[in-house]
């Protein structure tokens, strides 16, 4: 248990930050699932639009250092490859 006022405050901040980061990660997962679902549906125009929105979300969350930049790049690359395979 935190003994000093500073440690108690940091513990409170950690709880808030954890809740915020969890919500952001949830948003990330939702964006990736939406892109995958759109690609699965087969409509290239709709899938492209959702892909662009997903990339924006992924970049935003990576910029905030909630996920690592390489993980963000990996997600974007795999979604782009799936989208490209849709047109082939």
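^ Assign residues to that structure.
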């Amino acid at each position: 248990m935190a003994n000093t006022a500073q440690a108690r405050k940091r513990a409170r901040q950690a709880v808030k930050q954890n809740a915020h980061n969890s919500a952001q990660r949830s948003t990330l997962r939702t964006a990736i699932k939406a892109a995958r679902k759109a690609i699965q549906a087969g409509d290239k125009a709709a899938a492209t639009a959702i892909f662009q929105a997903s990339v924006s979300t992924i970049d935003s969350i990576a910029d905030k250092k909630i996920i690592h930049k390489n993980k963000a790049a990996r997600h974007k690359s795999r979604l782009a490859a799936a989208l490209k395979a849709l047109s082939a």
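DSSP finds three helices and no strands in the chain.
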